Automatic annotation (TrEMBL), chains A, B:
SUPFAM superfamilies: Nicotinate/Quinolinate PRTase C-terminal domain-like, Nicotinate/Quinolinate PRTase N-terminal domain-like. This is Nicotinate phosphoribosyltransferase. InterPro entries: Aldolase_TIM (IPR013785), NAPRTase_N (IPR040727), Nic_PRibTrfase-Fam (IPR007229), Nic_PRibTrfase_pncB (IPR006405), Nicotinate_pribotase-like_C (IPR036068). Keywords: Glycosyltransferase, Ligase, Phosphoprotein, Pyridine nucleotide biosynthesis, Transferase. It catalyses: 5-phospho-alpha-D-ribose 1-diphosphate + nicotinate + ATP + H2O = nicotinate beta-D-ribonucleotide + ADP + phosphate + diphosphate. Catalyzes the first step in the biosynthesis of NAD from nicotinic acid, the ATP-dependent synthesis of beta-nicotinate D-ribonucleotide from nicotinate and 5-phospho-D-ribose 1-phosphate. It comes from the Bacteria. One of its GO terms (cellular component) is cytosol.
Length: 439, 439
């Protein structure tokens, strides 16, 4: 598997470059835009994620010798194009929504300005990162809002492919999750990691008590003991017997949770373990979390539902050429005419219109104005500009990269949640919570 | 991002090893099993995929200096455990279903025998690969069977995360897809790649004719021209005008496909382009492909639906300790008692019972017999053994690795499809096509 990102690419991107180099159009300056035609069915808002990862992938989007040799051997492009690919590095500009921003149908999430050849090469890597990560973040944000401030951890690595798992942990964290079970996500992105033991650890031991003693011996009484391998009531009793009333937490991974959690809380309190917390982790999603809001749960762990976008594993974003220069140097807006899949051509800028209570009311997309335009905002102080410059001449703004960029995205999402109308947080299906207006 | 697989791991695997090293249970020989409690709702069979990738990941599951340093810094485990991790390499045995095999609820898809510590470390990497890849392969197999022999290409890289895309292309190929758009999948796994141009290529040019001329100039008349950027009828006319009647194919990516395809076929024939093929690629899944069975389509391209498992993006497999030795060296079957998530403890072997027409009738799981047992088969010639040894003393059988392993898996799936009852291929929801019986 390559260390670069250059072959995370659909073949047609290279063949388009090949043909466009031959007729000279490859060098036409172009504007590509990533956007979603709609939100997943019934969702009220989406959360942008993947941007920080994408910028890093674009910065190391180079073809190494082995990759070029494979392309040569398989005659994917002409030899002259291989030389062009060997020198490829992205040198253009990228604007877009901040990572962690809310988005709506038509929001111009990412705009790439470069020659056609430089920009078209990035289609797959742009969409792979934004589609998957935004799908996870959009689902995760809903779970966070129904968790009502209780901590929530991502534990779904086993339900998505091994490297997607690292991206999923990051996207969920940006959306407000507090921790992940995934160690690589901890190392690469600075996300707090958590986890103590599975049922296998109890089954490994001759008795449940033996397993609890081993765990408390290794991690002290503040650890989290998994109490449902055999009988939950006996498990809780044993856990407090072994760790004492200072036991950190018990984890419950099965059963009718509202009932079980209430009983366990009562039992813990009766045993004097009043500060022992209850963590639940049994196939949770936003609906089951909401159903536990009245139960004395202290923390949630979510797996499958968050890493698979809770029913919508791809955010449905597309990447379209919206403008290009012609031979005289003038910009021409372009768009395909298909009725089913219409898109709006032209350079775009975007702002969110807020009312006097600073609540979002409208997603405004200015067509024709570039993402570097500013005049529109000064006229109306209740427009919040949405697009920032992410990359200049091929150099990413370091504020959006790495661990710091991930933390910043998480903070931005938190602030943005404050401006959404409360109807945004209803779990039921509905329309996007604010309309998108083209101007 | 690490080059090894060692941190594609949930933290609790390392903390379990930590505590088990402390009390000595880490060295108990153990048997872990991966299986699915059920198929995705309404599916009749599943297809195992990911095994070849998994074996490669296990072979390079080592902790490098930077990873160990991170674990030390974050005090994930005790220093003594870090030393153990530094020397970690898997030295155990793995049996399992061949990649490409059909599976049913309870099928013992993978069995790992090693010390507890060696085996438990692999839980996340085992499940991430099997769950995702099998999800894609299981969806892809349904699409292949309704495509009725017409070629079908995977083009969904943009709808899943960038590295999952490579795994998805491979899983779809094993399930009978013919090609992928993903270049890295071509390079790493030897899968044929395809693709010519997107709408952006047409929009880049001043006219559609200019775009078609550029493409034919670069790739000759046998190329595939995308004809629906503006008006399909004019696009088809122009395509044949530019490439001549020897035009290889036209691609249609929008519209009401059964109607449009019939009209385009008629138009192509009238223009003398009787050998020009029609490829369709518009949000297809197994249901829309089935709906096109009567239309003159020559090839399909499938994106979102296949890489997201067509509604079931994770196959739901779990990884459980099913047996371990006790202090006297005897094997003890183990299983958690939770009613909701019961699993069957013990060593297992599996065979498929075929009737006299060599049609599968029953998935037999022999509990207590190890995967290396043989006696049961000799007694009844209509039992097809399902488990093979994939890894011996930490060394993978090379027949299951790399490009050759991928081809072999594709061939095996093709053979297995012949033995499934015809009801397996009904698209409607139903029960698993054969029952699973424990003996």
């Amino acid at each position: 598997m390559t260390g670069s990102a250059a072959l995370f690419t659909d073949r047609y991107e290279l063949t388009m470059v090949d043909a466009a180099l031959l007729d000279g159009t490859a060098h036409r300056e172009s504007l590509f835009e990533a956007f979603a035609r709609r939100l997943p069915d019934g969702r009220r808002y989406g959360i942008v994620a993947g941007t920080g990862r994408l910028l890093e992938l674009i910065q190391r989007f180079r073809f190494d010798e082995a990759e070029l040799e494979w392309l040569r051997e398989h005659e994917v492009v002409r030899p002259a194009t291989l030389d062009w690919l060997a020198d490829y590095r992205f040198t253009g500009d990228i604007w877009g929504y901040r990572e962690g921003e809310a988005y709506f149908p038509g929001s111009p999430l990412l705009t790439i300005q470069a020659t056609f050849a430089e920009a078209v090469m990035l289609e797959t890597v742009v969409l792979s990162t934004l589609n998957y990560d935004s799908s996870v973040a959009s689902a995760a944000a809903r779970m966070v809002s129904v968790a009502l401030g209780r901590p929530i951890a991502e534990m779904g690595s086993r339900r998505t492919s091994e490297r997607a798992a690292v991206a999923a942990a990051r996207a969920a964290y940006i959306a407000g999750f507090d921790a992940t079970s995934n160690l690589e996500a901890g190392r690469t992105w600075g996300i707090p990691t958590m986890g103590t033991a599975a049922h296998a650890f109890t089954l490994l031991h001759d008795t449940e008590e033996g397993a609890f003693r081993a765990q408390v011996e290794a991690f002290g009484p503040k650890t989290t003991l998994l109490v449902d391998t055999y009988d939950i009531t006996k498990g809780v009793e044993l856990a407090v017997k072994v760790a004492g009333p200072e036991l950190g937490a018990v984890r419950i991974d099965s059963g009718d949770l509202p009932t079980v959690v209430a009983a366990v809380r009562e039992q813990l309190d009766a045993l004097g373990a009043v500060d022992t917390r209850i963590t639940v982790t049994s196939d949770l999603d936003e609906f089951t979390i909401a159903g536990l809001s009245g139960a004395p749960v202290d923390a949630y762990g979510v797996g499958t539902a968050v890493v698979t976008g809770s029913g919508f594993p791809a955010a449905g974003m597309v990447f379209k050429l919206v403008a290009r220069r012609d031979d005289t140097g003038d910009w021409v807006s372009v768009a395909k005419a298909s009725t089913q899949k219409a898109s709006v051509g032209g350079r775009k800028n975007a702002a969110r219109r807020l009312d006097s209570t600073l609540t979002a009311r409208e997603e405004l997309v200015f067509v024709g104005d570039g993402p570097d335009g500013e005049a529109e905002y000064e006229a109306d102080s209740r427009l919040r500009p949405l697009m920032v410059q992410l990359m200049t001449d091929g150099e990413a703004d370091p504020a959006f990269l790495g661990k710091a960029g991930t933390e910043a995205a998480r903070g931005h999402r938190s602030a943005v949640m404050q401006e959404l109308p409360v109807e945004a947080f209803r779990l039921g299906r509905g329309e996007p919570v604010i309309p998108t207006t083209y101007r």
